[in-house]
């Protein structure tokens, strides 16, 4: 049996090919003991009470995977931080804390979306603090669906414009934040997404060998995953939807 990790699909109505690719991906996870979705699963999530044909299809497919015996876990990203318990109950998933430690065999891994590690992006961290405030979220969810949709459109436009003006290294993780998170978790292995920079990183900190595995973002033709088995350990790979 295998454990799978994915993130940064940014599922949305404007890219149906990616949604179809994800649905095909779920169907072939025959050996999946667990699937961890590490944030930005949707391009925008404005409440569990809002649905579209796309979200309905995704929910149905995830519920079917859960019914086959695969455990589902979701963590919030910076795009879908309003995913709540109602959505998770509909698909049979567990909503993880922002930072969660799991066992992979006899090793522990720290899981997170990764945006909280980008400390050099000061403007974003200020916005993140606001958006993760329970009072702000309660107020937002009390608004009408059209009001929430309009807010999401404006937020995406502002985010895109802001991102184009920032240096690439500002939007990557800060090494001191990575080490602090690993110290707090008591482990030497981290898995995250958010940066759209798929890679594996190895370094030493206080004579401890550490690893950071970074997931890639999905497109209309390809996806990224990290797969773990007791026999082979971790592997990061990109795959084409046409080969599923």
Structure description:
- By secondary structure, the protein is α/β, with parallel strands linked by helices.
- The chain has a single domain, classed as Purple Acid Phosphatase, chain A, domain 2, CATH 3.60.21.
- It has seven helices and eleven strands.
- It has a six-stranded mixed beta sheet. It has a five-stranded mixed beta sheet with strand order 5-6-7-9-8, with helices on one face.
- The longest helix has 20 residues, at 145-164.
Question: Rg to the nearest angstrom?
Answer: 18 Å
Task: Classify the fold: give the CATH topology.
Answer: Purple Acid Phosphatase, chain A, domain 2
Strand order of the largest sheet: 4-3-2-1-10-11
CATH class: Alpha Beta
Class computed from helices, strands and strand pairing:
alpha/beta
For the biggest sheet, the summary is: 6 strands, mixed
Mean pLDDT: 94
Order of helices and strands: EHEHEHEEEHHHHEEEEE
Helix content: 25-40%
Count of individual beta strands: 11
CATH architecture: 4-Layer Sandwich
Task: Compose a concise summary of this entry.
This protein has 244 residues and is an alpha/beta fold.
């Amino acid at each position: 049996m295998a454990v799978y990790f994915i993130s940064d699909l940014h599922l949305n109505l404007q890219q149906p090919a990616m949604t179809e690719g994800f649905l095909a991906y779920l169907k072939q996870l025959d050996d999946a003991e667990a699937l961890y979705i590490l944030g930005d699963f949707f391009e925008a999530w404005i409440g569990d009470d809002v649905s579209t044909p796309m979200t309905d299809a995704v929910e149905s497919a995830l519920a079917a995977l859960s019914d086959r015996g695969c455990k589902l876990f979701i963590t919030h990203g910076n795009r879908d931080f309003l995913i709540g318990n109602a959505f998770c109950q509909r698909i049979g998933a567990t909503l993880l804390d922002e930072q969660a430690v799991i066992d992979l065999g006899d090793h522990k891994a720290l899981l997170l979306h990764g945006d909280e590690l980008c400390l050099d992006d000061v403007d974003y961290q200020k916005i993140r603090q606001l958006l993760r405030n329970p009072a702000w979220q309660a107020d937002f969810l009390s608004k009408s669906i059209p009001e929430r949709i309009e807010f999401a459109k404006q937020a995406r436009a502002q985010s895109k414009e802001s991102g184009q003006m920032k240096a690439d290294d500002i939007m990557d993780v800060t090494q001191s934040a990575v080490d602090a998170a690993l110290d707090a978790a008591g482990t030497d292995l981290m898995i995250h997404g958010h940066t759209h920079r798929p890679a594996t990183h190895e370094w030493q900190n206080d004579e401890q060998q550490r690893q950071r595995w970074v997931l890639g973002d999905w497109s209309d033709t390809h996806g990224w995953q990290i797969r773990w088995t007791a026999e082979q350990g971790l592997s990061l790979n990109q795959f084409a939807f046409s080969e599923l």
